[in-house]
Amino acid sequence: MAYSDKVIDHYENPRNVGAFEKNEEGVGTGMVGAPACGDVMKLQIRVGKDGVIEDARFKTYGCGSAIASSSLVTEWVKGKTVDEAATIKNTQIAEELSLPPVKIHCSILAEDAIKAAVADYKKRYGDAQQAEAKAVNE
Amino acid sequence: MKLPIYLDYSATTPVDPRVAEKMIPYLTEHFGNPASRSHSFGWKAEEAVEQARANVAALVNCDPKEIVWTSGATESINLALKGAAEFYKTKGKHLITVKTEHKATLDTVRELERRGFEATYLDVQPDGLIDMKQLEAAFRPDTILVSVMFVNNEIGVIQDIPAIGELCRSKGVLFHVDSAQATGKCPIDLAALKVDLMSFSAHKTYGPKGVGALYIRRKPRVRLEAQIHGGGHERGFRSGTLATHQIVGMGEAFRLARVEMAVENSRIRALRDRLLKGMQEIEEVFVNGDLEQRVPHNLNISFNFVEGESLIMAVKDIAVSSGSACTSASLEPSYVLRALGRSDELAHSSIRFTLGRFNTEEEVDYTVDHLKAKVAKLREMSPLWEMYKDGVDLDSVQWAAH
User: Fold this and answer.
1) What is the DSSP letter of B124?
2) How far is B44 from A29, CA to CA, in rounded Å?
3) Nearest to B386 among A19, A62, A102 (CB)
4) Is A63:A83 a contact under the CB 8 Å cutoff?
5) What is the pLDDT of residues B176-234, one digit of tens each?
6) pTM of the model
7) Which of B103, B112, B60 is nearest to B225 (CA)?
8) What is the chain B residue with the closest CA to A105?
9) Residue of B nearest to A12 (CA)
10) What is the ipTM of this complex?
């Protein structure tokens, strides 16, 4: 099967591969997929005090399109607030990478990975920060 | 050394230059129709076809009259299974085959089921071989045909054809063997084997694509219902003008296989062992299928925690194939590896290396170095590898299957 140039570029030069320490300040971790299905994505975001994603890391077990999808979203989430990041749609990922129909599930997985990372972040810090913000306002 | 390196000889082989040379005059110069009885053009072509038939028969030790030309192994299998089932349907309607057979067999048997036949699909043991007791238990009073492949295309294991033949003969049941992956790789003696029908392909043995043959035993005589009708060629078993040049190619390819098999196999075995030794220096690799009951050409390995398709993409200088089916919409990995009881994870992580006539030690060494580097790179990127290294038991994780 022929891959698009963008998939090959992300696959050969993946952006932001690696991991943050799970307990590092402001880090949210999302892991989606299953080995039995042939793909697992781990996406991590590091969020600043202002709620903006400063940095991201990924590790992916999966085909070239899955690796490219996760590499791409680590670039896209940077500079976005967590709520903005959670609005990234799989169709945008699929379009950017020109994924063929059989690879659409890779982009869905990448969208799920962002949502899972954001949810993990909110679970860890979301309430505390909201409380903080509330306190400042008062 | 030229890149990319071809290590996918079980998909197809190049036509041996000596074979191609033999074929060419039959396209331009000796172009006659072998069925033309009235002039020398026809006689010349017929002579070449019969010489090729004798060469094919000699490789498998049968009478040339027992060989019928077809377009390839898929057609041979279709003719053998449908032809026998239709002819003997008054005797019974039950067929036995194996879950790890090639799709040419499995799909043909499925079609026969749609036509009212019944089929048993045998499991294999973890080594890829069938359990003779299970086979014996599968026979029914109305069983008419058993079909088993000689050499498996994905994992290269060799089934015990002599024993299965004895069992089938003792039950009075026809036995078909798909030998597409066996010719030139392991000795075949049809004078000794209790095999009634055997399918062959040219292009897996350095012959051209588009030609194959079916062996149809004469003593005891096997009857078939023809599947292609027309001019009554090939004693009515398979009508259609013979492709002289293709047949000449298959004959020469099989002649070379007979003459060179012993020497070639020991050379390829040495290459395979070299490849295996190199791969075993990588952590967490598993050979799929029995290593002893196996043709020397095949090495099917799972690289745990690395997905097969991404590995193939990484080793683009090496032409191999994967048991991962990430390319298909179903997301189902290789049905052959699953039938061995391999986990889906390991099936998704498998690569098939198949060696052949034109591979060199230098190519094998390059492949080993390349694989080592790429597996390491992909594992650095793999969350599963990270978890494995952290001592997490992956089986204990609750995965969200999708």
Assistant:
1) -
2) 75
3) A19
4) no
5) 999 999 999 999 999 999 999 999 999 999 999 999 999 999 999 999 999 999 999 99
6) 0.92
7) B112
8) B402
9) B314
10) 0.89
